[in-house]
Amino acid sequence: MNELARIAYIYDALELEEFLRSMDGSVTELPITEHLVAGLYSREVRIPADTVLVGEIHRTAHINILAKGSITVFTEDGEKYLEAPATVPAPALTKRVGLTHSDVVWISVHQTDLTNIEDVKASLVIDADELLALEPHELEKIICLS
Description:
The longest helix is centred in the N-terminal third of the chain and has 20 residues, at 3-22. This protein has one domain (3-144): Jelly Rolls, CATH 2.60.120.10. A five-stranded antiparallel sheet has the order 1-2-9-4-7, covered by helices on one side. The model has no long low-confidence stretch (mean pLDDT 84). The chain is globular and about 35 Å long. A hairpin with a 2-residue loop joins strand 5 and strand 6. Helix content is 29%, strand content 36%. It is α+β, with helices and mostly antiparallel strands.
């Protein structure tokens, strides 16, 4: 995968997210169910049909599971149509845009040594400002770990 394409795509996804947030009433926070067991943290989100969504930027590689429904996921490599059941590996520093075609259950699974859910969430996600502030060697280190 072209690492520059990955970073450029993140900026495109951030612009879309900003546009969606600027539209009154267009952003809905979706309910999330979290689990933390034996070094694994999972986030389960239920997404209604015909929803455009923009995910977080994750610091680490992880696994995504489409447990129910169908969705088109847009990435730096193009678009992928997925139908449940599907498992999708995600490298570090990815931000995805999705369009659901039916009601979807999406689960992300992350490895962690932390034992507090709030600490885990803080360690997994990097916000756009922090990403922009990283030096090239710091980006390289994160990408190489994925």
